[in-house]
Amino acid sequence: MMPDAHQTQRHRHITRSLLLAAGGLFLTAAALAVVKPSAPPEPIFQARQTLDLPPMGGSLHQSAPYIASTRIRRGDTVSDLLHRLGVDEDGLLTFLTHEESARSIYKLYPGRTVQAALDNQGNMVWLRYAHTPGSTAKSGIESAWLEIRPDGQGKFTAQERTVAAVQETRVAEAEITSSLFGAADDAHLPDSITLEMVDILGSRIDFLKDLRKGDRFRIVYDAYMHDGEEVGAGRIRALEFINKGKTYSAVWFQGSHDRGGYYDFSGASLKGAFLRTAIKFTRISSRFGMRMHPIHKKWTGHKGVDYAAQSGTPIHATADGTIEFIGQQNGYGNVIILKNFGKYSTLYAHQSRFAKGLKKGDRVQQGQLIGYVGQTGWATGPHLHYEFRINNQPVDPLAADLPVTRPLDNGDQKAFQTLVARYQPQMQMLARLQDSRIQIAER
User: Fold this and answer.
1) Are residues 395 and 331 in contact, defined by beta-carbon separation less than 8 angstroms?
2) What's the pLDDT score for residue 380?
3) Structural domain includes residue 30
4) b/e string for 40-53 if b means 16 or more Cβ within 10 A?
5) What confidence score (pLDDT) does residue 39 get?
6) Same domain (yes/no): 341, 299
7) Residue 72 neighbours by CB under 8 Å, 6+ apart
8) Which of 156, 251, 298, 335 could share a disulfide with 349, CB 3.0–4.6 Å?
9) Does residue 390 sit in the same domain as residue 287?
10) Does residue 439 sit within a domain?
11) Mean pLDDT lowest for which of 66-70, 139-143, 328-332, 396-400?
């Protein structure tokens, strides 16, 4: 039985709640909603026929195959799918049941597509199951499917096929009338792009509290296409979000010395220049300032903050930077010193070991794994000693006025402005389209 609209919407709601939790956004789809949206069920069966026209003056001897397509529904069997497609081949179901190379057709994923090509006599030309419409491979996004063909002697062959999806740049715009996800559905945006939009602008917009009916967004993103269908989504390239009348912008930019990040159209980074802590789920065991040294038993200045954690706890760089020192150094034990930008540097001491492959001169990105908690050097227990330095002088990282954003390097300014100039006309075109829709709706 075909699922009704309520079941479809409930499935989407559950799926999106899981995605939000897995992404660490601590939101729910309901929290992003003003009114719960409704969406019509997708068609489960389509058919088409492609005709090859003969040359002028010729005759049409044989038409192209008739293509039938159906979407898998929850509870479907292979027999159900063949029946809906109009495929009635002697021995086919037995072949699919017993043939090892055709086993993937018994992993039926609701929502994915099965197609059949039939000739003008109703005989099957091929049967295709797109079981992996968009998977990540070294070369990018691939589409994989199982193809079954008759061998002309009353038997069949099964073969797995893959093809690289084609990357395209897509644009979308929408106005929020009921919820963010409802607007994204109207714009045919994948959920992954919607979640990335929330992540990018999360430091500027409180998506839990600040969304209003009438808010708008305009977006440029990468999509991967196969056979006319979108099979995967890539990165957001540019974005504008109008919230309560204020426009927030974002563009992906990779400078000459980093791995890339999001900036607003004026060039300000959308992520904080420094994270407050280098390890998660920890407690402070010793603060910056004077203290009784646990080993030397005398009062001395403590130049950093100690974070108690179990040995092996991952340590992450609090900011982009270049490894200035990596190795053993006096009481620090295994230590990494990062030269961040301008007058700032950071130190991570007492590590049990470093992340594999790191060496002096390497560039690391904010949040990148650089090592693991230990108790090497002068340490009475496993912990991270973290120092934040300005002009090589340690300051209290818990009290310091940390830079809000990292500015673009001078050499990258021109390239950044060129990139923004490329996307601004697209945003202006989408804005005009939105305005036209609003004017039509108000008539």
Assistant:
1) no
2) 83
3) no
4) eeeebeeeeeeeee
5) 41
6) yes
7) 81, 108, 109, 110, 111, 112, 113, 114
8) 335
9) yes
10) yes
11) 139-143
In a domain, 7, yes or no: no
Burial class (CB in 10 A: 0-12, 13-18, 19+), 12: middle
Distance between CA atoms of residues 155 and 92, nearest Å: 8
d(CA 404, CA 390): 15
390 & 289 share domain: yes
The verdict on residue 34 lying in a domain is no
Last residue of a domain, one of 164, 199, 222: 164
Count how many domains the chain has.
3
Question: What is the three-state SS of the chain?
Answer: CCCCHHHHHHHHHHHHHHHHHHCCCCCCCHHHECCCCCCCCCCCEEEEECCCCCCCCCCCCCCCCEEEEEECCCCCCHHHHHHHHCCCCCCHHHHHHHCHHHHHHHCCCCCCEEEEEECCCCCEEEEEEEEEEEEEECCEEEEEEEEEEECCCCCEEEEEEEEECEEEEEEEEEECCCEHHHHHHHCCCCHHHHHHHHHHHCCCCCCCCCCCCCCEEEEEEEEEEECCEEEEEEEEEEEEEEECCEEEEEEEECCCCCCCEEECCCCCECCCCCCCCCCCCCEEEECCEEEECCCCCCEEEECCEEEECCCCCEEECCCCEEEEEEEECHHHCEEEEEECCCCEEEEEEEEEEECCCCCCCCEECCCCEEEEEECCCCCCCCEEEEEEEECCEEECCCCCCCCCCCCCCHHHHHHHHHHHHHHHHHHHHHHHHHHHHHHHHHC
Residue for token digits 């192209």? 64
CATH number at residue 178: 3.10.450.350
CA distance 53 to 59: 9
Cβ atoms of residues 308 and 383 within 8 Å: yes
Q: CA 317, 323, 329 angle in degrees (round to 5)?
A: 95
Biggest CA-to-CA distance, the chain: 104
Q: Could you tell me if 201 and 305 lie in one domain? A: no
In the chain, pLDDT over 90 holds for what percent of residues? 27
> How does pLDDT run across 29-80, given as a tens digit for each residue?
444 454 434 444 444 545 454 444 444 444 444 567 788 888 888 888 999 9
In this model, does residue 21 exceed pLDDT 90?
no
Tens of pLDDT, residue by residue over 361-379, are 999 988 899 999 999 988 8
Domain co-membership, 151 together with 238: no
Highest mean pLDDT among 154-158, 317-321, 324-328 belongs to 324-328
310 close to 267: Cβ distance less than 8 angstroms? no
